[in-house]
Amino acid sequence: MSVSRLSALLSAVLLVLSLIATPARAATPGDVVSARPTTVYLLPGKLLEVPVNAWHVLYHSTSATGSLNTVSGTLLVPKSRYPLGTRPVVGYAVGTHGLGDQCAPSVSMAQGREAELALVSLLLLKGFAVAITDYEGLGTPGPHTYMAGISQGHAVLDSVRAATRVPGAGLSNRAPVAVMGYSQGGASAGWAAQLQPAYAPELRLRAVAAGGVPADLHAVARHLDGGDDFGLAAAAGAGLDAAYPELDLDADLNDRGRALLADAAGDCVGDLDKLAGLRFSDLSPIDLLGQPKWQARLAENRLGSVAPRVPMLLYHATGDQIIPLSVGSALRSQYCRAGVNVRWTKLPAPDHVTGAVEGGPLAVGWLALRLYGLPASGNC
């Protein structure tokens, strides 16, 4: 055998051995699957481009039952240099957008129809990078696991992890981190706070602001039953069913219930108004909320059983017609009893949406002080 052929054979053997000895690293939560540049706009018709560096990101996260999944989101980074050291990263959790992929915030921002971008812009103006998750199944294959708090908390934390791994974004994995959200996003922010010490301990989480929090899904569902916003309760049932297959919601519905939920499966939040005035009893011959399997999963997704280790701002509209003030104040009491540093703010807002408008700027200012390193004082 010639020397050249022997050398080639040895090289091939060494290559095979190296592949055997060093298998590919398994995917982990927060890993970036893809990141492509995008553009976001404040107004429909792609008017008023937001002057930031932006990426549409696919990243790995964890489902409510512990399986690795893929979630989409958007990363926004100001173009100007951050003057105070390491640029902070804020995980922004949006409120209810709907069940269909076309409702995802990454889609609405690219089309100039994302209402929450106004609040996000307040964070960007302070120089913070903002990671905005679409949540599981909203913008990616499979149904949206709407109001499955554990999945949503994972998606928020992993959006921040992924943000620090996007090539060219210039973000540090040692950056100070904050989380903010309202309504569905408020629950997601609360879950991010509770899950972070065990799930993402490497993140330097400084504070969490959560408004209009549906902390107790069972209580909220009972409140919405038969009301104008029953569509949100029905959507939450569909979302939990997607997260926990053993619930098998379809098997417990009547023909009308199956038809109505099938029709709503691709709806955005405004379309859910067509379910106004209905009751769970219109959709099922049994008391769904009284079933042990539902009670178990609802209890599992009830906030308050774990004490966050960072300061919390909780705010709630006095006249909230969707998530009763009592639900928010009960969460505040639980956290206070557990020794959490809580700042509770009861807003004069007459309804749920106005609570987001009134409380959003307050939350941005409070979080900014925490990211600047100033201590938080609670009012338990």
TrEMBL record:
<dbReference type="GO" id="GO:0004806">
    <property type="term" value="F:triacylglycerol lipase activity"/>
</dbReference>
<dbReference type="Pfam" id="PF03583">
    <property type="entry name" value="LIP"/>
</dbReference>
<keyword id="KW-0732">Signal</keyword>
<dbReference type="GO" id="GO:0016042">
    <property type="term" value="P:lipid catabolic process"/>
</dbReference>
<feature type="signal peptide">
    <location>
        <begin position="1"/>
        <end position="26"/>
    </location>
</feature>
<dbReference type="InterPro" id="IPR005152">
    <property type="entry name" value="Lipase_secreted"/>
</dbReference>
<protein>
    <submittedName>
        <fullName>Lipase</fullName>
    </submittedName>
</protein>
<dbReference type="InterPro" id="IPR029058">
    <property type="entry name" value="AB_hydrolase_fold"/>
</dbReference>
